[in-house]
C-alpha cells in the first residue's frame, strides 16, 4: 500500500469512529469523499443515474449503521466499495439491469466540458465494456480504474482470488480482441509505447 | 502478443505483470523486467499500449453526473426519518413492556391467592387420599372397645385425659381406632386404657392377631 493510501485509510478510519458516536459531519465528509469514485464504479454496473444515486445512498445508509462493526481487517475503501457492489447487485436484481445508452442520457447528465479526445476515449471504453459481463466490468474497473489488488477485489466481490484472476483474464482477452477494431486508425495512431 | 504465443513463457509473464506495473504496485524488479521485455517484444508492446489506453480511459471522470449534495441531503433525511421511527417504536415498546409486567404481576398475585387457599384447605382435609396411611397403619394406633353403657361425656373425657384422637370407627363390633398425640406413649396409654372402668378392650392396632 502506498503512503498516500495509508494516510487516506487512516483518515477514513477516524471518520468511521466519529460516525459511531453519531457525528453526521463525519458522515458528510466520508460521503463527499467517496461519491465520485462510487459513481464511477457503479456506472460499470448500470448506466441508470437514478439507480446509481439510490445505490450510493443505500451503501452509505449501511455504512452509517454498521460503522461500529467495521473490524479493520481491510481498508475502509475496500469495505465501502464491497457494500456498494452488493447494494448494486441487489438493486439490479430488484429493478432490472437496463443500461442507459449515451444517446438516451439527458443533456444535463453529460459533462459540460468534454474535450474531443476524452469523449473519443470514453466512447471507445464504453463500447469495449459493453462486451463484458457485469462482473468482468467490475473487476476491470477495480483493478485498472481504482487500483485495487487481487486480494482487495476478492474481498469486495466476496469470491476467491482465483475467480477474480479468471474474470480479469477473460475480460482482458475480450477487450484485446475488440478494442483495436473499435479504436480505428485515429486512436491507434495516438497510442504511445512507454 | 497473440494467443498462439501463449506458450511463450516470457509473454505470459509479461501479460500477468502488466496491470500491476500500470498500477505502480509491482515490485521494482518486476517493472524493470517488463520494460526490458517490452523493448524486445512488439506484440507485448502493443498489448501494453492498449492496457495503458484502457487505464487512461478508466481514469476519466464518469459521464454519469450526480450532485453529491443532493444525495447527501436525501441520506440525512432518511436517517432522520429512521431515527423518528425508532423513537416511536421505543415508546410503543415501553408501553407494551409495562402492560406485560402488569399482567405478570396480576397473574402472580392470583397464583399466590390460590396457593394460600389450597394450603389452608390442606390443613382440614375432610377426606383421606390413597397415598395417606390408613388409621390401622398409623404408628401407635390402638383399637378400643368402650362399654356400650358408657356415656358420650365420659368417652370424651377419657379421650381428652389420655390425649387420644379417634381416627376410625366405630366398626360393626363398636371398636374405635384411636391414636395418642405422642406416639412414644403408646404402651402407657394402652395400660391406662385397660385399667379404666368402662373399657372392654384395648389392643394395639398393629399387633399381630
From TrEMBL, chain A:
Lineage top rank: taxon = Bacteria
Checking InterPro entries in the record gives: RNA_pol_sigma-70-like, RNA_pol_sigma-70_dom, RNA_pol_sigma70_r2, RNA_pol_sigma70_r4_t2, RNA_pol_sigma_r2, RNA_pol_sigma_r3/r4-like, WH-like_DNA-bd_sf
Q: Residue limits of the RNA polymerase sigma-70 region domain?
A: 30-96
Basic and acidic residues biased stretches: 106-119
Alphabetical UniProt keywords = Sigma factor, Transcription, Transcription regulation
Q: Which GO terms describe its biological process?
A: DNA-templated transcription initiation
Annotated region described as Disordered, given as residue ranges: 96-119
Specify one Pfam family: Sigma70_r4_2
* Molecular function terms from GO: DNA binding; sigma factor activity
Per the database record, which ranges form the RNA polymerase sigma factor 70 region 4 type domain?
124-175
Per the record, the similarity remark reads: Belongs to the sigma-70 factor family. ECF subfamily.
| Name of the protein in question | RNA polymerase sigma70
Protein species of origin: Dyella japonica DSM 16301
TrEMBL record, chain B:
Q: What residues form the membrane-spanning segments? A: 99-119
Q: Which residues form the Putative zinc-finger domain?
A: 11-45
Q: Which organism is it from?
A: Dyella japonica DSM 16301
Q: Which InterPro entries match?
A: Anti_sigma_zinc_sf (IPR041916), Znf_put (IPR027383)
Name of the featured protein:
Putative zinc-finger domain-containing protein
Cleaved signal peptide residues = none
Key words of the record: Membrane, Transmembrane, Transmembrane helix
Amino acid at each position: 500500500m502506498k503512503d498516500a493510501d495509508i494516510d487516506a485509510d487512516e483518515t477514513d478510519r477516524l471518520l468511521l469512529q466519529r460516525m459511531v458516536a453519531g457525528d453526521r459531519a463525519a458522515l458528510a465528509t466520508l460521503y463527499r469523499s467517496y461519491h465520485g469514485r462510487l459513481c464511477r464504479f457503479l456506472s460499470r454496473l448500470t448506466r441508470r443515474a437514478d439507480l446509481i444515486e439510490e445505490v450510493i445512498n443505500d451503501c452509505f445508509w449501511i455504512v452509517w449503521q454498521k460503522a461500529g462493526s467495521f473490524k479493520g481487517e481491510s481498508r475502509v475503501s475496500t469495505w465501502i466499495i464491497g457494500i456498494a457492489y452488493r447494494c448494486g447487485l441487489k438493486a439490479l436484481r430488484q429493478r432490472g439491469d437496463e443500461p442507459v445508452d449515451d444517446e438516451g442520457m439527458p443533456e444535463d447528465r453529460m459533462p459540460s466540458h468534454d474535450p474531443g479526445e476524452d469523449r473519443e476515449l470514453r466512447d471507445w471504453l464504453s463500447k469495449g465494456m459493453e462486451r463484458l459481463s457485469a462482473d468482468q466490468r467490475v473487476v476491470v474497473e477495480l483493478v485498472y480504474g481504482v487500483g485495487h489488488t487481487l486480494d482487495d477485489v476478492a474481498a469486495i466481490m466476496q469470491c476467491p482470488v482465483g475467480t477474480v484472476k479468471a474474470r480479469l483474464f477473460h475480460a482482458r482477452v475480450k477487450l484485446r480482441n475488440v478494442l483495436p477494431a473499435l479504436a480505428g486508425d485515429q486512436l491507434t495512431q495516438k497510442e504511445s509505447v512507454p | 502478443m497473440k494467443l498462439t504465443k501463449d506458450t511463450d513463457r516470457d509473454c505470459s509473464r509479461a501479460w500477468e505483470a502488466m496491470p500491476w506495473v500500470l498500477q505502480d504496485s509491482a515490485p521494482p524488479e518486476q517493472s524493470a523486467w517488463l520494460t526490458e521485455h517490452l523493448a524486445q517484444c512488439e506484440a507485448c508492446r502493443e498489448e501494453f499500449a492498449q492496457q495503458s489506453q484502457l487505464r487512461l480511459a478508466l481514469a476519466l471522470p464518469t459521464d454519469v453526473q450526480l450532485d453529491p449534495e443532493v444525495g447527501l441531503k436525501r441520506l440525512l433525511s432518511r436517517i432522520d426519518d429512521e431515527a423518528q421511527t425508532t423513537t416511536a417504536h421505543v415508546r410503543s415498546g415501553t408501553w407494551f413492556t409495562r402492560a406485560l409486567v402488569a399482567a405478570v404481576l396480576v397473574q402472580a398475585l392470583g397464583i399466590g391467592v390460590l396457593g394460600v387457599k389450597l394450603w389452608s384447605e390442606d390443613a382440614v382435609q375432610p377426606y383421606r387420599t390413597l397415598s395417606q396411611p390408613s388409621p390401622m397403619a398409623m404408628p401407635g394406633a390402638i383399637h378400643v372397645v368402650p362399654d356400650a353403657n358408657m356415656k358420650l361425656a365420659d368417652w370424651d373425657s377419657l379421650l381428652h385425659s389420655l390425649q387420644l384422637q379417634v381416627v376410625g370407627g366405630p366398626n360393626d363390633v363398636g371398636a374405635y381406632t384411636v391414636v395418642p398425640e405422642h406416639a412414644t406413649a403408646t404402651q402407657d396409654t394402652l395400660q391406662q386404657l385397660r385399667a379404666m372402668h368402662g373399657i372392654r378392650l384395648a389392643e394395639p392396632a398393629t399387633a399381630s392377631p
